[in-house]
Amino acid sequence: MPYCKKCGASLENGDKFCSTCGTAVAKACNKCGNPLKDDAKFCGKCGCPVDELVVVKKDTIPQKNYTTPESIIEAAKNGDLEAQNILGDMYREGIGVTQDFYQAADWYQKAADYGKKESQYWIGKMYLTGEGKIQDVTKAVEWLQKSAAQGYTDAQYYLGLILESGYEGVPRDINKAFGWYMKAAGLGNADAQNRLGILYGNGKVVPQDYKQSFNWYLKAAMQGHASAQSSIGDCFREGWGTAVDYYKAATWYYKAANQGDTIAQYNLGIMNLLGQGIQKDKTKAAFWLGKAAEQNDPDAQNELGLMYELGDGMPQDMHRAFELYQKSANQNNATGQFKVGFFYLFGLAGIQDNSLALMWLQKAAEQGEKRAIHNLGTMYFEGEGVPQNYSIAHDWYMKAAMTGFTDSESMLGYMYATGTGVPSDYSKAQQWLLKAADKNDARSLYILSLMYKDGLGVRMNYSMAVSYARKAANLGYAPAIESLREWGVRQ
After folding, report:
1. What percent of the chain has pLDDT over 70?
2. pTM for the structure as a whole
3. Which has more confidence, 326 or 27?
4. I need a labelling partner for 402 at 20 to 30 A (CA). Which of 8, 68, 286, 359 fits?
5. HEC profile for the chain?
């Protein structure tokens, strides 16, 4: 009577799976117990002919008492599928043996051929990546499907990723991808649960449903999935699928941050900086932003750089600020590029270099960074590092002003009011100055006061002139304060 290799239950000849535990039945030689492929006619070890399907009998199952690499290798050579899979892991990771992807693939293949679902998964991944196997996406999918069909959730999740993305020419099939994610998630796979959280949250594959998104994230987060924990923090912070609760957001960010999740570290730093849901603590803010910055998160590098630049919660250190901005800029971050350009323009870290300032500001401007666009206008307006050119300055200011950047709106108003580089046009001047004045730009308020005092493009109105001048003076604008004094008007 044949027996199941895993649980020892009795089997009938011809069985493909154990009715007790569901394990795939391994075909083996009656004489020596050597594992055989399904289409084998002769035993490759002892040469005996194979007349019918047989399985490893109970008394030939290798004992699971291997504790050393040597014992695992011995068990693997004797046909133990679990040992073969473990040996594949060892060679893949370089644990106890020299790392060797080809050896790993060989051992995985032996176990995979006899239905070991974990080995089938790894063979599929190795065909996909070309590690230990010649890259073959078709074979990769075939092996992953074999593993997934046996309920191996990592394979189900990975198939979902391949089908969702259409990886390497595999026909994209969102419905099948979602189906595999659901299977894996239903069996408790945290990666699949997290992926469902993402899909329900962004609404690109299924109708957007923040409640479903929150629920799937929570299932994964409860299993310790760092990215899901960070996303649960986002949900509590933004009110996605649950009530806003900054304290709970910070709690989940803390769990994820302690696992090294960069986004959570950044968000926890910002919450400490703002005192959002937790007590404001700039020392802790710097600590968590530093953790994220060490992992090359450009936003964290910028925020920490700003703290050093301003001396906010720490001694001011312009050189350290510049180093952080430079790291961010090197990752093509527009804010970092602007800051590096700005530092070079004004020599804030001890090095003034107009050519480098121009280069970095242009890089940032190409990404739409408003401050960089405005500063390029100022370089051309003042002839700093470039030939003075009011026309080019006007174009840069206009580009920034069209996005609502206040300083550029004010400069356009000044240029049209004074006729600097453009024909004098009080109507256009008033248009741009009012936009900036509505956002309490002191210079714009003061120029409007002069226009009303002297009737430049508007009807003369001394009361309006004083009103605008007072607003500018209350913002500390020295020319407005002086004008009110000259006019004999109290501030």
Report:
1. 87
2. 0.80
3. 326
4. 359
5. CCECCCCCCECCCCCCECCCCCCECCEECCCCCCEECCCCCECCCCCCECCCCCECCHHHCCCCCCCCHHHHHHHHHCCCHHHHHHHHHHHHHCCCCCCCHHHHHHHHHHHHHCCCHHHHHHHHHHHHHCCCCCCCHHHHHHHHHHHHHCCCHHHHHHHHHHHHHCHHHCCCCHHHHHHHHHHHHHCCCHHHHHHHHHHHHHCCCCCCCHHHHHHHHHHHHHCCCHHHHHHHHHHHHHCCCCCCCHHHHHHHHHHHHCCCCHHHHHHHHHHHHHCCCCCCCHHHHHHHHHHHHHCCCHHHHHHHHHHHHHCCCCCCCHHHHHHHHHHHHCCCCHHHHHHHHHHHHHCCCCCCCHHHHHHHHHHHHHCCCHHHHHHHHHHHHHCCCCCCCHHHHHHHHHHHHCCCCHHHHHHHHHHHHHCCCCCCCHHHHHHHHHHHHCCCCHHHHHHHHHHHHHCCCCCCCHHHHHHHHHHHHHCCCHHHHHHHHHHCCCC
